[in-house]
Amino acid sequence: MKRFIILFLALVMVSSTLSFGMTEEVTVTIPEFDVTVNDVKIDTAHSQYPVITFNNVTYFPMTSDYLSGIGLRLTFDASTGLELNVENKAGQLEQKFLGASNVLGSSSKAQIAPFPIKVNGKVVDNGSEAYPVLLYKNVTYFPMTWRFAVTEFNWKTTWDDVKGFGILVEGASQAGETVTANEEDGETDLFEGYKLIEVDGGDLSGYRQANVVVDVGFGDRNYYAFTNEYGQLVKVIADTIILQDEENEPVKSTGRYYYDEAKVPGTESAELDEGHVIADSLGGVANAYNITPQNSTLNRHGDQAYMEKVIRDAGGCSDFEAIITYPNTETQIPSHYQFTYTIMGNKIVDAFNNINPDVANEDINNTESTSTDIDTNTNTDINEEDISKIDTNGNGRVTIAEAEAAGFTMPIYSTHWLYKYMTDRDGDGMVGE
């Protein structure tokens, strides 16, 4: 039997509504089917205000962040109640996410809204409505019957046993708008098999579309991120990395372009950062197509941070490519990163696992052989004590990237002549382990 679907619009609950008093409670459920708005899938499992159902009717949460995306304006007055009106223009849909997951199929309580309600100036008698306005998590959920969704709001609605329930708002801009590739720049071949879409650099949604490419460079930079068929971020490329220009770009006091980063599933873990693939300092944005859940020590003090410093110290790089791999097709938490880039004609490859490097180093130290048979001076043809061909920026110090580019094999031990020119961050007698 075909499911009867009705969309409910969630509107922000104002604390003064408490003056009207609460009414009876009802049981609502977080559904297991998909919901989309303007072809953007709602991440119900991680939404702060998830889609719910009541008596086989679908309720779709729409907080103030959603209102502009669907072209509605909400006002509330403590004496006259709530009024909802259609705006002439719809903007981009945004989503807010929890630090934990909602359990699909779970049930909880909501209340029937007790305050006066108007839609486009018409009074809604909520007490006699077959599908009344509800309050859930202190947010007002507005009933979207055919009368409202189609007649009042002029939306198109769809239902599919596979794709679930969807609405389309005429004229809405969205994270997922198709862009035509520039054939003269060779982008058609580069993006073959992918849909090029535009996503705002500060979009905090953790959801990614599958098989798309997104420009994740701030301003006029062209940095391209690719997802696979599972919505996993698997590659980011840039012909040239252009450093952040804090004097001429809108950089926050924190050194970032945005106040926060996308909430990609997995970043709720205390051990994982919202890690940029291309950092703010290198001109990268903060949406889900440039963010992965990355071990916090690795991101702040490990190989990721060190790679970013090498590129900054060099004033940028060329032929940048990040390849990101995962342990399975369901998680958004990578298991491994490989970065390839060129500095002063030297091709550098940095590869590392998404783990705490301090823990890894401790394990290495516990198992490291005490043998002194290792010939630590035969990993390059460069003469001892001659760092002129290694120290590419001439600062008297040698980075891991510079050493690798010169042909040295990591790690460099304390017995090696090059060790004294390098930085042993953890003091374990090895650099680049």
Structure description:
This protein is mainly beta and 433 residues long. Helices cover 12% and strands 30% of the residues. The strands form 7 sheets. It has an 8-stranded mixed sheet. Strands 1-13-12-9-2 form a 5-stranded antiparallel sheet. A hairpin with a 7-residue loop joins strand 18 (212-215) and strand 19 (223-227).
Briefly, what is this?
The protein has seven helices and 27 strands. It is mostly beta strands. The strands form seven sheets. The chain has an eight-stranded mixed sheet.
Give a topology summary.
Blueprint: E1 7-12, E2 25-29, E3 35-37, E4 40-41, E5 52-54, E6 57-59, H1 64-70, E7 72-77, E8 81-86, E9 107-112, E10 117-119, E11 122-124, E12 134-136, E13 139-144, H2 146-152, E14 156-160, E15 164-168, E16 177-178, H3 187-190, E17 195-198, E18 212-215, E19 223-227, E20 233-241, E21 272-276, E22 291-295, H4 296-300, H5 303-313, E23 317-325, E24 336-343, E25 346-353, H6 357-367, H7 400-405, E26 412-413, E27 430-431
Parallel strand pairs: 3-15, 8-10, 17-18
Antiparallel strand pairs: 1-13, 2-9, 3-4, 5-6, 7-8, 9-12, 10-11, 12-13, 14-15, 16-17, 18-19, 19-20, 20-23, 21-22, 23-24, 24-25, 26-27
